[in-house]
Design goal:
alpha/beta; seven-stranded parallel beta sheet; binds zinc ion; 23% strand; globular; six-stranded mixed beta sheet; GIY-YIG endonuclease; binds adenosine-5'-diphosphate; 802 residues
């Protein structure tokens, strides 16, 4: 008797462990760790993941597994292990970690098929099922009980498994025709055919002459000018065979990629790649920070490192932020590695995503380029993991499990003993601090590829503009520079930062922003109460009618939209052709790409957009970049706001002058003296890093302290306050005196979907009891969470404090 340890799909503390089930005899040797099954659980039948197989169990009465979901493991041994790590480090349930590793299609409804890759090799026991087609539903064949045989055939590549997703975009197949006999037999058969069967002669001639193994039916009918009956007749005589061949929904199928070769590396690129190549060669896990200015040739180095990994027969994961997974970026990898690349990003449909995942699972590709979740790519022989723009906060998942792709990369890097490369022009403080301490090796690339060097950056003080009577969103300087570009036929990019929730209050005359006296972050405006509030400590004050600093009346709620900017722009420069890119103009699939294509083809003079245009774009004719308001990001209630501002301004500036023409950048701001604006304009990351580190230290923020965020939500305000208060008190008792516990306080977004949100933030250096204390909290409230729709989220190392 063998048993399977199964983690069931009930995300709760009580069920967050493996349960033993008896494996029915027919599945012995067939069932493997990493497969999903259906098991009886209490009165229900539910899904579960097999994590191990064993010969004994300490459980007295075991129940039997009721049915199989998977026919082959969908999680590797490594990923099963990794889920435990994710559970312990993000405080989620193991089942949630498993689910996060799979493409959504595998969580939806689907049908299991077995596809015969070579009909000749299908043994007699199963041949009957494959008589009419090379595809058979697993459900039809299941009754035979030939599980061990099927497993063997799958391993021998005679059969393969396909999950047909039941969505609108379900898989595509194409009907093909192939000879079912050897060449000699075909020739013999042709001689015996009646002379009147002209079409059948044509068909056999075709396969005899071309020696083709198969042909697409539709093309065959067209090419030979015959009808389907000829094919059917030969199929009946078992000379030919028809089958459905699956074709991938390749999202890039209609484009051709010019093959590109490795470029000769510059000395700086050479110096950067050589330690990485050394780690690849030695099969060593080393962490690298590739600190390279925009346009320094980091991507070329990534590609050559990947190339070296492929030559060793290993695989590569390249993470790119969703927002810069532009066609340009994809093209670069596709043109270098061709069909060895799978691309995974959220723009793909569920079926398309599954196809890409499946190429990885079946080892048909060796490289995945993708956004955050691609870090779980089921490769089994990883030779390098690269994270481009590693500072991007989108690498942190905001839903359970709240993991950071960077941490997963390090874990997988250790498991596979391979290098992990974190690349950025503006590394996160956490990462750079680790590099400074020697945890990661620092590789610096301070020269741009183009001879133009870094673009010249000019800061325009918008308070000054206002004082001189210019009430428009465009400074005179920026307008003049836009005109010049128009005259010369060069292009400009205008960037409007909208990510920062624009609910802070600022003086348009002096740039004064109201900040919390205790927390050094801006206060948030609350329209309902007409109050300004601090979302870290709860401090609040009334809104002032005039600026407390200069008494100006231009003291108000701040915010602008791209559409408004476009209107003003077309009024100011009527003959400029403008492309606007924001959530409204890019909501349709493919529109993002189309707009960029138009801009690349110089069908517009100005590209106006939000952060979706900040990254990864590389247009040779762009010589001017304008940032309309540098401040929006600066004033969001987040201790990372300076860092984000610096990163964004640096990224945006990097879009100018990447090629032959020199670039210029204009940053409009109400706080020109702010260090993150000033240092971004001089491209001085190191000074920024030092300055920001001092502030983080003084205010006890990461990387000097860790953060834990507990968010409580419920329909009733009193309930939320009460629970959060109890949690805060409980943590106060469990943790050491060194831990700083802030709260209870309302979340910056105080109500979502009619539910109130409260939070408690813990700042700490070392709290061995913290995880246990947080788990206890979840456990204690479990019943209420199930029954009363109370929810308690725990985020270790949060990136969103909203
Ligand atoms: P980054 O990723 O650091 O922003 P890129 O890799 O995009 O920089 O390089 C900037 C430009 O320089 C690209 O157009 C790229 O093709 C080109 N480039 C990179 N490396 C080389 C090289 N060794 N020789 C010639 N051109 C290069
Ligand atoms: Zn003022
Ligand atoms: Zn405060």
């Amino acid at each position: 008797m063998t048993y399977a340890s199964v983690i069931v799909d009930v995300p709760a503390k009580q069920t967050d462990r493996a349960f033993d089930y008896e494996i029915p005899e027919k599945w012995e040797g067939f069932l493997q760790p990493g497969m999903r099954v259906i098991v009886p659980f209490g009165p229900r039948h539910i899904q579960g993941f097999v994590v191990s197989i064993k010969n004994t169990t300490s459980v007295n009465k075991t129940k039997k597994i009721s049915s199989l979901i998977d026919i082959t493991p969908i999680l590797t041994k490594e990923l099963l292990l990794l889920a435990g790590w994710v559970r312990d480090h993000t405080l989620c349930f193991t089942i949630s970690a498993f689910q996060a590793m799979l493409p959504a299609a595998l969580k939806a409804k689907y049908e299991k098929w077995l596809i015969a890759k070579n009909l000749e090799l299908v043994p007699a026991e199963l041949a009957l099922f494959f008589q009419n087609s090379n595809r058979v539903r697993f459900g039809d064949i299941e009754g035979t009980g030939h599980f061990k045989l099927i497993k063997q055939l799958i391993e021998d590549n005679v059969l393969e498994v396909y999950y047909e997703v039941k969505d609108k975009l379900s898989k595509k197949t194409i009907r093909i025709v192939r000879p079912n006999r050897s060449q000699e037999e075909l020739i013999k058969a042709k001689d015996q055919l009646s002379n009147r069967a002209a079409a059948q002669h044509k068909l056999l001639d075709y396969f005899i002459a071309t020696k083709r193994e198969q042909a697409v039916k539709k093309n065959l009918l067209e090419e030979l000018q015959i009808g389907t009956s000829a094919i059917s007749a030969l199929v009946k005589m078992r000379l030919l065979q028809e089958a459905d061949e699956e074709i991938y929904r390749d999202p890039y199928e209609n484009r051709s990629f010019k093959q590109s070769e490795n470029l000769a590396l510059t000395p700086q690129q050479q110096a950067t790649i050589s330690p990485i190549l050394h780690s690849i060669e030695k099969g060593k896990h080393d962490g690298y920070v590739m600190f390279g200015v925009t346009g320094s040739g980091k991507t070329e180095v990534y590609m050559q490192a990947v190339d070296a990994v492929l030559k060793k027969g290993k695989e590569a994961i390249v993470l790119v932020p969703e927002i810069s997974l532009t066609p340009q970026m994809v093209n670069r990898f596709k043109s270098r590695f061709g069909s060895d690349v799978a691309v995974m990003h959220s723009g793909l449909g569920m079926g398309e995503k599954y196809d890409e995942w499946r190429k990885i699972h079946r080892k048909e590709v060796k490289v995945v380029v993708g956004a955050r979740s691609a870090i779980f790519a089921p490769f089994e022989n990883i030779g390098i993991i690269i994270i481009d723009e590693e500072h991007e906060t989108s690498y942190k998942q905001e839903d359970t499990p709240r993991y950071h792709a960077r941490d997963i990369a390090i874990q997988r890097g250790k498991y596979h003993q391979c290098p992990v490369v974190l690349g950025s022009a503006t590394p996160s403080l956490e990462t750079f601090a680790r590099a400074s301490k020697g945890v990661y090796q620092l590789l610096t690339m301070d020269k741009r590829m183009s001879d133009q060097g870094m673009p010249k950056v000019e800061i325009v003080d918008m308070r000054e503009e206002l004082r001189e009577g210019n009430r428009s969103m465009f400074s005179r300087d920026l307008l003049e520079k836009l005109h010049i570009r128009l005259d010369k036929g060069e292009q400009s990019v205008l960037f409007l930062n909208k990510r920062g929730y624009s609910s802070f209050v600022m003086c348009r005359d002096c740039g004064y922003v109201v900040e919390c006296p205790h927390c050094d972050i801006s206060l948030t405006y609350h329209r309902i109460s007409n109050n300004l509030k601090c979302h870290y400590c709860g401090y609040e004050e009334k809104v002032h009618e005039t600026c407390p600093s200069c008494d100006s009346e231009h003291f108000r709620f701040f915010g602008t939209g791209t559409q408004k900017v476009e209107e003003e722009l077309t009024k100011l420069i009527p003959d400029a052709r403008v492309i606007r890119m924001d959530v409204d103009t890019t909501s349709k699939k493919g529109s993002h790409e189309k707009l960029l294509q138009q801009f690349g083809d110089q069908k517009a003079d100005i590209l106006l957009g939000t952060q979706m245009i900040a990254k990864g774009l590389d247009f040779p004719m762009v010589t001017l970049v304008g940032v309309l308001t540098a401040d929006t990001m600066l004033n969001i209630p987040d201790f990372r706001s300076s860092e984000k501002t610096f990163q964004l301004l640096t990224q945006v500036s990097g879009r100018a002058g990447r090629h032959l023409l020199a670039g210029e950048v204009v940053i409009q701001t109400y706080s020109p003296e702010h260090y993150s604006v000033e240092l971004a304009s001089t491209h001085d990351y190191l000074s920024f890093y030092q300055k920001e580190m001092q502030l983080r230290k003084a205010h006890q923020y990461p990387p000097f302290y860790y953060l834990a965020l507990v968010t409580v939500t419920h329909q009733e305000l009193t309930k939320v306050v009460d629970v959060t208060e109890k949690i805060t008190n409980f943590l106060g008792m469990q943790l050491s005196k060194e831990a700083v516990i802030l709260g209870p306080v309302s979340s910056p977004i105080a109500r979502i979907k009619d539910k109130y949100r409260y939070q408690c933030i813990v700042k700490y250096k070392k709290e061995p009891n913290l995880h246990e204390a947080l788990k206890t909290i979840v456990e204690k409230y479990q019943a209420q969470m199930d029954q009363e729709k109370l929810s308690i989220h725990i985020d270790l190392n949060p990136y969103m404090l909203m």
